[in-house]
């Protein structure tokens, strides 16, 4: 028996090493979002966070137990990670024998010891319900503007995961996207993200035990756990409430039109079936930084975030240090932008086009295919934030604000959970989506240095306070209460267009 256990343990050890090897190779294939690190701990942190963010096949809690230190900038800069290449499942014996080893999903899928995944779950029922309603109502979310990204109707339906308030982390995952019929365009797994969200909700509810007393045992909702689904509705101009109406239940998203942060009817009573929850990466502090409080006036240092707080992080070792930034008054007076163009080709492509003309070199630094670390944003007085494919940039916006730069926010009409108190002219400078007033707003900031510095400081303070653990928990409580208090979802017959 002992020999059998030893062989089993050795086999598992070899599998884990194969997984890490594959992850390291994958890391090497993502130069746009990572850069080599002198710290082995930082490299390991990068691999771990890439695994959790891109696929989640390895337990997210164990991978993300060590916060801070990874030299990884995907979420820090633009809240977006490129989809990994979809590959077919390979045999465990094939590991290391070809290019397939570069695929995180293939490494995990080769593990034949895992129990068979369910073929029909509550989440499958949600997808089938939406697809059936689309067919019955002759509604197609696969629009002309969006079709090059995939079939919007299928992508939207397959992003839906069934959640229960009393057991948010207890989720039955459907088959992997590449094994589903019809098949979505993405290979990352919405259910893995939903489980991370469920784990956070479970922890948050433990901090608010009085809440569950008033929650019906079967209270639940659908979570659209992939930013591709938001892209479908955004690009097609569809009304988010129509999805809740078609499903006949509350639906939560990781970003949505800003009006859903404080929804109300004509009498001021909260009446909406669309809600916004924190992304799993935000709940795990992935890609998030902490910055010295007086960074605007005096400059300071930025650190990878930890739940322990900035004072503790400063004592945790040099791998937590992201970099240093000068005071606001000593920073470059140019307007700075970097981010994945694929994440939002329209406005991001437009600003890169502007940056390509030398006539704009005296006010704009926007260079294609030139990756930087997040601390680089703190070297400039003015930085631009353009939403990813979900209309927002998750932690990236707060990172830019925390660095003490004046953020020029390109308005998309979409919001993350913490945007409710953001005010144009008070916390950031608003820019039209077509960038037609970008240069005008820049000239205003240059002509009003005291106002620019004041807004930068107000934005820094807001981003620090609004994204705290207490603020996140309070937001979740509001969302849950709105869901419980509103039992009218699915009873209307509104239009699908916003």
Q: What's a quick, concise take on this entry?
A:
The protein is an alpha/beta fold and 498 residues long. It has 19 helices and 14 strands.
Spans of at least 5 consecutive residues whose pLDDT stays below 50 are: 1-72, 84-91, 93-109, 111-116
Given helix and strand content, the structural type is alpha/beta
Q: Biggest sheet: strands side by side, in what order?
A: 10-9-11-12-14
General shape: globular
> Separation of termini?
64 Å
The share of residues in extended strands comes to 5-15%
Let me know the largest β-sheet.
Answer: 5 strands, parallel
Average the pLDDT over all residues and give the rounded result: 79
Describe what you observe in this structure.
The protein is 39% helix and 11% strand. The chain contains 19 helices and 14 strands. Helix 6 packs antiparallel against helix 7. The N and C termini lie far apart (64 Å). It has three domains: 2-109, no CATH class; 122-282 and 475-485, no CATH class; 313-466, Rossmann fold. It has a five-stranded parallel sheet with strand order 10-9-11-12-14, sandwiched between helices. It has 498 residues and is an alpha/beta fold. The radius of gyration is 23 Å and the shape is globular.
């Amino acid at each position: 028996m002992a020999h059998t256990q030893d062989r089993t343990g050795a086999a598992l050890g070899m599998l884990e090493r194969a997984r890490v090897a594959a992850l390291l190779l994958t890391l090497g294939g993502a130069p746009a979002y990572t850069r080599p690190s002198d710290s082995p701990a930082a490299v390991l942190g990068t691999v771990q966070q890439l695994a959790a963010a891109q696929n989640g096949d390895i337990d997210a809690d164990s991978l993300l137990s060590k916060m801070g230190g990874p030299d990884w900038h995907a979420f820090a800069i633009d809240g977006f990670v490129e989809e990994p290449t979809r590959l077919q499942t390979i045999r465990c014996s094939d590991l290391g024998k070809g290019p397939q080893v570069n695929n995180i999903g293939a490494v995990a899928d080769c593990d034949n010891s895992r129990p068979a995944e369910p073929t029909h779950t509550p989440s499958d029922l949600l997808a089938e319900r939406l697809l059936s309603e689309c067919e019955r109502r002759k509604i197609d979310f696969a629009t002309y503007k969006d079709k090059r990204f995939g079939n919007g109707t299928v992508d939207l339906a397959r992003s839906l995961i069934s959640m229960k308030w009393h057991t948010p982390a207890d989720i039955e995952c459907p088959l992997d996207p590449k094994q589903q019929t019809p098949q979505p365009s993405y290979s990352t797994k919405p259910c893995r993200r939903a489980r991370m969200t469920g784990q956070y909700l479970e922890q948050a509810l433990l901090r608010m035990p009085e809440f569950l007393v008033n929650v019906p045992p079967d209270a639940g909702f659908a979570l659209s756990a992939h930013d591709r689904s938001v892209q479908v509705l955004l690009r097609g101009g569809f009304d988010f409430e129509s999805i809740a109406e078609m499903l006949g239940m509350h639906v939560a998203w990781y970003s949505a039109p800003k009006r859903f942060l404080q929804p109300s009817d004509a009498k001021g009573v909260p009446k909406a079936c669309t809600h916004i929850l924190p992304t799993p990466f935000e709940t795990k502090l992935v890609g998030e930084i902490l910055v010295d409080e007086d960074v605007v006036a005096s400059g300071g240092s930025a650190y990878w975030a930890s739940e322990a707080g900035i004072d503790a992080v400063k004592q945790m070792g040099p791998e937590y240090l992201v970099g240093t930034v000068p005071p606001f008054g000593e920073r470059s007076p140019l307007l700075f932008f970097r981010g994945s163009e694929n994440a939002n080709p329209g406005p991001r492509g437009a600003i890169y086009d502007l940056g390509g003309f030398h006539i704009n070199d005296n006010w704009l630094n926007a260079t294609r295919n030139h990756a930087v670390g997040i601390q680089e944003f703190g070297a400039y007085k003015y930085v631009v934030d353009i939403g990813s494919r979900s209309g927002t940039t998750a932690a990236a916006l707060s990172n830019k604000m925390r660095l003490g730069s004046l953020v020029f926010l390109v308005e998309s009409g979409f919001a993350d959970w913490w945007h409710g108190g953001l005010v144009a002219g008070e916390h950031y400078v608003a820019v039209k989506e077509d960038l037609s007033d970008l240069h005008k707003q820049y000239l205003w900031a240059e002509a009003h240095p005291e106002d620019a510095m004041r807004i930068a400081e107000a934005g820094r303070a807001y981003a620090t306070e609004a994204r705290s653990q207490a603020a996140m928990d309070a937001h979740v409580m509001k969302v849950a209460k709105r869901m419980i208090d509103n039992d009218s979802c699915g009873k209307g017959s509104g239009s699908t267009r916003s």
